[in-house]
Amino acid sequence: MGVNIMIAVTILCSPALLGSPTYFLAFLSFLDACITSVIASKMIADFLDDSKTIFFVGCMTQIFAEHFFAAVEVIVFIVIAYDHYVAIYKPLHYSSIMNWRHCGTVGVAG
Fold this sequence. Notes:
By secondary structure, the protein is an all-alpha fold. The chain has helices spanning about 1-15, 20-50, 55-90, 95, 100-110. The protein starts with a helix and ends with a helix.
């Protein structure tokens, strides 16, 4: 989890990468850290506690968080795939097509 946060911070703080598609990688690292923290928190608590029970509300919250972060990760993968498609098949129009507004539209539509 710490490595994913470090990757996200490094990518977001680098001025050389400003405006490049590596922001998608930073977001994926952040999502991986979120998924890991959702799953690992209960697992660590179970290792430290003798009673390995979970309440229904806690279980549903954990399942919702896992599915939510996984769905957002799939949407980011779709945006990355579209970004690569545009970069390969329309390289001269890439900068005019893949602006931040269009990336946000594709992300919301995905």
